[in-house]
Amino acid sequence: MQNHQVGLVIVFLCCCLVATKSTPLSVHDDISDSDESAAFSVEKQPQRNPLLDNDSDDSVDDDDSLYPFDDSRLVDDPMGAMERHQRVHDHNWDVLIFTQQWPVTTCYHWREDNPSQECTLPQKKEFWTIHGIWPTKLGSLGPSFCNNSAEFDVDKLDGISNRLETYWPDLKGATSQEWLWKHEWQKHGTCAMLIEELDDELKYFAQGLSWREQYIMSRILDASDIHPDSNNTVTVINNAIVKVLGKNPSIHCLFDTKHEISYLSEIRICFNKSLELIDCDGVKLGDAVSIKYPGGNVTTNCHISSLVHYPSLVPTPQRKREWKFPLVNVYKLLQFLMWFTL
Length: 342
What we know:
The chain is of the alpha+beta class. Helices cover 31% and strands 19% of the residues. One of its GO terms (molecular function) is RNA binding.
């Protein structure tokens, strides 16, 4: 009988030592109200790890550390070495990819990956920000870093720096703002210099601001009643954009494997060398694929048959922590149980 009781004591102690607690999800940073989603009027229009970013542009660009929960990488293939060689030595490109990101999803990803990561959301509500302008070859990646000797002169941006801080911010905070602009210029701007309209820092970043002001993504989505906190299929989102722009975009999601939720992350639209809006068809975007569906074609990394969540809240990541059980308390409990079983 005593042996049985001692056995139960040992099992009980083991359970105590390995027990853990987890903190529940909480939410903050509600940005469901809208400043930019007022009725959208179309002025003269120039006429998608799994799930799926992340980063991004190394999904095409993906600025190395910016995005996804589930970073999907390119599948190795026999042409990989040749393609990498071409990206390094061939600086020509066919299209410009203008990428807007949904800051809530970006911040959610960062905090899921690193709970201590600082993330500063825009003060305005329902506000998409610029990720970048990426010169890209059809059917390939890049080019990037086309002039390693190029210097970045932030002083050239003095006249537009306030607008850049609003529309092209580093969500990690103001202290790294200049670093982001320098990175975007050296990685992508030095390749965009191929055309006169983008051949210096001021022209490159000013063009991003111009496109951001012309293609206000919250208004484009609002025209089809798509707002934060809604769930829609990627085809519905694609149709909403095509309805306004008349061109096929590329829609990118981040997939939270822990909770099995797809989050709307980035929307990319494309331009030719004459800066005219064109379809993003034929652009290789990492894990994005072109999918035909009744009524259209969508380039995306989002699950075609699943709902995509357009979040308005940044949940605090679920974290696990050990239930600390001081050794002295274990000793006292053991002494008591031994006495109790005598």
